[in-house]
Amino acid sequence: MRRSVSIGGLALIVALGAAGLGVGHKSSIARAQDKPSSAEVKIDNFSFGPASLTVAVGTTVIWTNRDDIPHTVVSTDDAKTFKSKVLDTDEKFSFAFTKAGTYPYFCSIHPKMTGKVIVQ
Amino acid sequence: MIEKKNDELLHDHNHDGIDRRGFLKCMAWAGTGVFCVVQGGVLKSYSLSRLSQMDKAGLKGELSFVQISDSHMGFNKPANPDVAATLKAAVDKINALPTAPEFMLHTGDISHLSKPEEFDTVNQILKAAKPQDVFYVPGEHDVLNDNGKQFLDRYGKGTKGSGWYSFDKKGVHFIGLVNVMNLKAGGLGTLGHDQLEWLEDDVKHLKSSTPIVVFAHIPLWSVYPEWGWGTEDSAQALAYLKKFGSVTVLNGHIHQTLQKVEGKVTFHTAASTAFPQPAPGKADSPGPMKVPAEQLKSVLGITDVKYVQGQQALAVLDSPLA
Q1: CB contact under 8 A, A109 and B140
Q2: pTM of the predicted model, to two decimals?
Q3: Is the confidence at residue A91, as pLDDT, over 50?
């Protein structure tokens, strides 16, 4: 059920982005890496890891679904500050946190799955 | 009382019927289908694997229908790389039933990712089933990304709200409920205020002797809240059904057959036609359970239900695909 994370793939994307070949979200990941201000949350066994992540303002957080079942990443606030599409196995979602604060989120398909990002 | 058997769920509630005040819970790991008979207002369930060994007279009733669930079309992971084949096997099983069911209930997760082609494939496969009428309720996998719009466009004709409805067949009142919308962080399945209000009104004028069948995706009883296997406001829904002598609740979502009888209410979850999930709390997560390929069909199944006038419970019979 567990899948190995595609670190190699991510590194390639970063490399392509750095070489000016990346487009769309790929290049944004690359920029985040350049700063370097990105952090990862892995979805395994119906849970976010780490469930609580503390990052600096400006950090891009990248979620990767490593389960055999689709999940989502949706901020709990009414405004839905961030909201992914459904993430199938190995798919990623990223969001850049530009303001300090605490951002609780959950999987809207499996609402028992919750996590938070603390930006300071 | 807890009963655990290998591959069957066989409880004849007719002996004690509506006077039952006991608590009955049983599990069937290899049950992949339930055959239900409504007999005298009581729904009886049988493991489909045991069907051939049973008294045929006991399986006849005024009404028989079949429940299938969690076909997850589009899923292609190791737990079952060919969910279309196992859904076809479920259709074969249905077509081989000794009493042809009049219609089917699909208790959700028709698709895996809400993709149009996934719904199309299920429709195509179910065309081969003898019963042509299918009544659907959505699972959370059917309402991804569009808040259920596609589901309603395809299956929601004549329904209320996010897709709930009721209908009558041979004196039995069927209620399809939706508990997969607007889920809140940290919470369980939810029916919501509007649907509960509709339900109260829907059953208000029915005689208490009317057999009731409620079907919804997520269990309407607390199976295992830690994994989200329950519905926040199901108690309110059941309170509206208190006056009835026979209530049968059919759910899916947990990909295994479980049954519980509480007073006049029989709760039943169906097997998936796609892949099994672990018993409550018996794994790190409720994710798909990989079993040896040759065992897969023994943990998938269908559910057959029969109703016989004059008896208390509907008969619910789970049957594995192999």
Answers
A1: yes
A2: 0.81
A3: yes
